[in-house]
Structure formats: C-alpha cells, structure tokens
Amino acid sequence: MERTLSVRGLFRISRPINLLMVAFAQLMTAHFLIETTAEGLPVLQDFRLYLLALTTVIITAAGYMINDYYDVKIDYINRPHEVVVGKGIKRRVVIFLHTLFNFTAIGLGYLISPRIALINFLAAFLLWIYSNQLKREPFIGNLTVAFLTGFSVYLVAFYYQKNELLVLTYAIFAFFLNLIREIIKDIEDRHGDRLHGCRTLPIVIGFRKTKQVIFVVAICFVGAILTVTFQIDNPHLFYYFGALGFVFVWFMWKVYQADRREHFTRLSAWAKVMMLVGTMSMAFL
User: Fold this and answer.
1) 155-169: average pLDDT
2) CA dist., res. 3 & res. 149, Å (int)
3) Which residues contact 234 (CB under 8 A, 6 or more apart)?
4) How far apart are alpha carbons 265 and 188 in whole angstroms?
5) Residue 99: strand pairing partners
6) Burial 210-226 (b: 16+ CB within 10 A, else e)
7) Is the pTM of this model over 0.85?
8) Phi, psi of 74 (to 5 degrees)
9) Alpha carbon distance 115, 109 (integer Å)
C-alpha cells in the first residue's frame, strides 16, 4: 500500500501532462520549424533531439518537485486535496529525487553538448531559487517561469544553430501567455500566499491593480506578436494569430469579469489550452 501511494505521489508531483506538453512543443518546433540538422538530415532522425527533450522534461519535473517541497504549507491552504509532499511522498524523498533528476539532466545534457549541460545547470538553479525565494516576490517570479517556458521552445533553434524567426515567434508566444497565466495563478492563490508572508503582485498592489498589470502584459503580447508576424510575412501565420486574437479578446474579457477563485482556476486552464493550440499550429505553417 505504501509503495502504491509513493508511486501515485511521484506521478502527481511531476505533473506528467505538463511534461508531455513541454516535450511535444520541442518536438513540434524541431520537426516543423527547424526541419533539418546542420548535416542536412531530418531533425527527427537525430537522437540528440530526443535527449534534449528528455533533459528538458527531467529539469521541469525536478522544478515541480522543489516547488511543491517549499510550498507545502501554502498548498495545505490553497489546495489541501492536492498536497503530495509529506502525504503521498516523503519530504526527504522529494529532495533526493530533485537532486537526482537535476544531476541526471545535466549529465545527459553533457552527452549532447557542454553548452546544453550549462544551460540545464542554469535552468535547474533558476527553478530552485524561484521556488525558494523568487516566487514569493512580486512579478520577478512570474518573469522567471515565463522566461524558462519561452526559452524551452527557443532551445531547439539554439542547439541546432538555426536563426529561425518563426521559432522566436513561438517562444515569445509561450513567454507572454505563460506570464499571464502565472499572474492569474498568483491571484488564485493569494489567500494562502498572504498567510505565509508572500509578496506576490495581488498582495503588494491589490487584486484589481494586478488585473490591470495583466492587461498591460496582454498589450505588450499583442504588440510583440504583430511585430514579428509582419517581419515574417507568412499568410498562414496571419490567419492563425488573427483567429487566436478573437479567442484572446474573449479570454481577456473573462479576466476583466473574474472575481472569484474558481474563475481564475478556469482562466489558468484556458491559458494552457491556448498554449497547446498554439503549439499545434506549427504543423500548418
């Protein structure tokens, strides 16, 4: 029984659906936007691509673990039925797995390239300092996670040394949409965060001003996407972002109307759906 509970706890703490989305985004980027290696081979035939995706997934899973480890008291208030650390899996086991995962990802990264190993080390360090400190500060924690999300998309182009503006477009898309989602999650969790001394945006500047920050980020998002799409001048990209624009306007209207925790929970889920749909659109470019 204890073993089954530990396996279930490990499964829950690592967020497998989110990990699949990370790997899916990198493989889609490689296949549809990078296409070939420097040697002219189809990129999907390069085993290093799958190692790259695997190391990204492992680093991400380790980040979820250390985040839950530090947030266990807050989670008992915000989402008590979802707490894993100390219930589904022991605290010392979480720390051991976090360390093991990070060293494994860095080691596998070195097999790909020393610079990938360095990037994995820096990503693991950022996720640790985010969970330990930055998450409890206004905006900087949101920026950290959003940057790592966007860079996970651009990492494929970085490794294959392809200066693809299309890849940058999707990295920008992932960055801004995830930044909005992270701020929404702060609003959703503000009750538990306040009780444990966090200084997230909703606590520092208030609920309504935080929604104003989301609107400012949304304007920057639209401006950045318009800038790169006009430079690329791809009709399919215009059609896609044009259609997404209507959905995004509806999404922002829902942000404006939202005033209860369950509203922001649904908005967070919708942001994740938009990221998935955005990733799938690579197949049509």
Assistant:
1) 88
2) 33
3) 166, 285
4) 7
5) none
6) bbebbeebbeebbebbe
7) yes
8) -65, -40
9) 8
Q: Cα separation of 119 and 236, whole Å?
A: 33
Cβ contacts of 72 within 8 Å, gap of 6 or more: 83, 85, 86, 91
Least confident window among 1-10, 144-153, 154-163, 176-185: 1-10
Q: Average pLDDT of 249-273? A: 94
What's the CA gap between 122 and 118, in Å, rounded? 6
Separation CA 225–CA 177 (nearest Å): 11
- Token readout for 135 is 């998450």
The residue whose two tokens read 């950022």 is 126
Whose tokens are 């996407």? That residue is: 225
User: Taking the CB of residue 247, how many other CB atoms lie within 10 A of it?
Assistant: 13
| Contact assessment for residue 52 and residue 155, using Cβ atoms and an 8 Å cutoff | yes
Name, of 69-78, 173-182, 236-245, the range with top average pLDDT.
Answer: 173-182
Among candidate residues 280, 146, 166, the one with its CA nearest the CA of residue 234: 166
Q: Which helix (H) or strand (E) holds 68?
A: helix 47-70
Backbone φ, ψ for residue 15 (5° rounding): 55, 65
> Residue 224: which residues within 8 A CB-CB, separation 6 or more?
172, 176
Sorted by sequence, the CB contacts under 8 Å of residue 67 that are 6+ apart come out as 127, 130, 131, 135
**Among 279, 280, 256, which residue's Cα sits nearest to residue 180?**
256
Return phi, psi of residue 144, to 5°: -60, -50
